[in-house]
Amino acid sequence: MRMQETLSGGEWVTTGEWIDVHDPADVRTPIARIPALAPKDVTRAYDHAERGFAVWKRTSPFERARIMTGAARLIRERVDEIAADVTAENGKTLAEARGETLKAADFLEYYSGLARQGYGTLLHDARPDTQTHTRREPIGVILVIAPWNDPLITPARKLAPLLAAGNAAVFKPATETPLSGLHLARALHDAGLPAGVLNVVTGRTAELEEALLDDHRIVAVTFTGSNEVAGRIRRRLGDRNVRFQGELGGKNASVVLRDADLPFAARTVVAAAFGQAGQRCTATSRVIVEAPVHEEFVRLLVAEAEKLKVGPGGDPATTLCPLSSPRRRDSVLADVDRAVQEGATVLTGGRADTEGERAHGCYVRPTVLDGVTPDMAIWRDEVFGPVLAVRAVEGFTEAVEAANDSAYGLAAAVFTRDLGAAHRFADEVECGQVAVNATTPGWDVHLPFGGFHDSGTGYKEQGEEVLRFSTRVKTVAVHFGS
């Protein structure tokens, strides 16, 4: 079995204790082991990061860009090896894993370009013979906490902009899926990243939480995960002057209006709902259909869902991968059972798939629930699995109200041929990302990303907008007269 080291202070290190990493397609045998760091190792990582920041903030932006471009090149060269590990530890299909790997390289390339440009604004000054400008500076050591569902692209999305701006990082990958993030760290290390600029803390989060969050050198925390954990982080940070960027839950709706291309909408909604087995924060989990086309659309939706082939991510024929762990499989099935008890109807799926080679995996059949009402938990709670809840409405206004009937506000889509309805929907829906005749997931590296309400915080990810989180603004006035 592979024993995987972790990166700290520019060196690949191990400890005396290990954590097993399992393949959700077959959980019986571990595929690798990672070091279980202790709190003292976390403190050491912050020591390294403090020293690394002192070097990196003074490193030429052109040198930063060179290193990040080099890391992107290495990721592309290693795409097969990296994608295989993403699939092995997370379960997603090889096609999804390859896409995630290449997108991680895109993030490094994009922010290496921004590093070359510099960030600031030339301002007019009322004083004679004076020129004033703003500049953006790095803020220091940033804690990066990444999730298990996108174990490579999310760290890349977070690390690339903060490194480009000159910050240092302590990076905590999810315990279930650490191999992917370690590939990213290795590419940056091999490309010449100075020691201590990036330090990877592997281990059991509960045992390391205090050391991770209480260190006085943290200036910011960027986190992707559940609202429950985000609340715990906020309370832990308390009244300290620490920035917090959270990309949190979602209960994303796709609205199908009566004039929509129904076969196209059904195919697109199924792709949005069941890609990565629904384990995306932007996955469509609610479908709101105008009543005159409800019956026909649901028939098409079920037919498309039943075309999906459940299987291990390493099988090229698989189009619906396993869930990431037995605990998450059981949680999804419990959500479906509760929905049925509350009155929803299972049109397809609704059960585990334990046939043949899938007997030892974390498989759930693609599930479509109809007859869902606003008072049901399945309408309000994030399931994070291959489950769609369908509700019929009488018209556009009711459809928008239903889409906005959520504590979350991450992503939404509308399917229509009416340009006016599309623009009205974009104006009125309460979420950070709006798609018209497209999937709710899938936002490119240069597009600002983040939700409203309980889906996120004031700091966006991606694009230039993310630089507000990882930099501070300094205003400089230069008087050049006598």
Describe the protein in words.
- The protein has 482 residues and is α/β, with parallel strands linked by helices.
- It is 39% helix and 23% strand.
- The strands form 6 sheets. The protein has a 7-stranded mixed beta sheet, with helices on both faces. A 5-stranded parallel beta sheet has the order 10-9-8-11-12, sandwiched between helices. Strands 1-5-4 form a 3-stranded mixed beta sheet.
- The longest helix is centred in the N-terminal third of the chain and has 24 residues, at 94-117.
- The termini are far apart.
Rg of Cα set? 23 Å
Mean pLDDT value: 96
Q: Which class best fits the helix and strand makeup?
A: alpha/beta
Given as residue ranges, the uncertain stretches (5+ residues, pLDDT < 50) are none
Number of strands: 22
Tally of separate helices: 15
Q: Tell me about the largest β-sheet.
A: 7 strands, mixed
Shape: globular
The strand order across the widest sheet is 15-16-17-14-13-19-20
Kindly state the percentage of residues in helix. 25-40%
Task: Characterize the quaternary organization of these chains.
Answer: single chain
The amount of beta strand, in percent, is: 15-25%
Q: Distance N terminus to C terminus?
A: 73 Å
